[in-house]
Amino acid sequence: MKSLPYFCRGEVIRGFGRGSKELGIPTANFPDSVVDNLPADINTGIYYGWACVGNGDVHRMVMSIGWNPYYKNTKKSMETHVIHTFKEDFYGEILSVVMVGYIRPERTFDSLEALISAINSDIGEAKVKLQLPEHLKLREDNFFTTAPASSADLSSTTGSTSQTILNGH
């Protein structure tokens, strides 16, 4: 995928409410404007990379892009699991991510337990791959130090902001 690494940011919005409650794996969801501006060569599936909430620390992350076949969603989404324990929800905060690699295509599962197992496997794979020097250097990218602290600091739409950031790298 020639668009990787891909840099984007947007305000964290409420998703389906399944990550924390059903899966025990909380996710941060991007608005449609960010999802709709993904490059054409970013396929659906599971990605790994780095994420930063507001002006906080940069953490490892895994992201699902697609329709979540297990749940039969009709709307494409970008759901980021930041591999870090936060004390509270951060709806309304700005999430900045850099997707650096692809783990697997999205697929359906026979049970909730199988889905949870696959997500945990994806998290383990991301932790290993993010130790590679070419991925570690992106953790220090100035994209994260120039992240706006709030949605008021974004330009008119998060989608155009993510395009600007992509083109600036």
TrEMBL record:
Cofactor needs: Zn(2+)
MF terms (GO), sorted A to Z: ATP binding; metal ion binding; riboflavin kinase activity
Physiological role: Catalyzes the phosphorylation of riboflavin (vitamin B2) to form flavin-mononucleotide (FMN), hence rate-limiting enzyme in the synthesis of FAD. Essential for TNF-induced reactive oxygen species (ROS) production. Through its interaction with both TNFRSF1A and CYBA, physically and functionally couples TNFRSF1A to NADPH oxidase. TNF-activation of RFK may enhance the incorporation of FAD in NADPH oxidase, a critical step for the assembly and activation of NADPH oxidase.
Catalytic reaction equation(s): riboflavin + ATP = FMN + ADP + H(+)
GO biological process: one example: riboflavin biosynthetic process
Domain of life: Eukaryota
The protein's name: Riboflavin kinase
Alphabetized Pfam families for the sequence: Flavokinase (PF01687)
Entries under InterPro entries matching the protein: Riboflavin_kinase (IPR023468), Riboflavin_kinase_bac/euk (IPR015865), Riboflavin_kinase_dom_sf (IPR023465)
Keywords from the UniProt entry: ATP-binding, Flavoprotein, FMN, Kinase, Metal-binding, Nucleotide-binding, Transferase, Zinc
Pathway: Cofactor biosynthesis; FMN biosynthesis; FMN from riboflavin (ATP route): step 1/1
Catalytic EC class: transferase
Enzyme Commission (EC) number: 2.7.1.26
Higher taxonomy: Eukaryota, Metazoa, Chordata, Craniata, Vertebrata
Keyword Ribonucleoprotein appears in the UniProt entry: no
Organism: Cynoglossus semilaevis
Annotated Gene Ontology cellular component terms: mitochondrion
PANTHER family: RIBOFLAVIN KINASE, RIBOFLAVIN KINASE/FMN ADENYLYLTRANSFERASE
Region (Disordered): 150-169
Domain (Riboflavin kinase): residue spans on this chain: 1-131
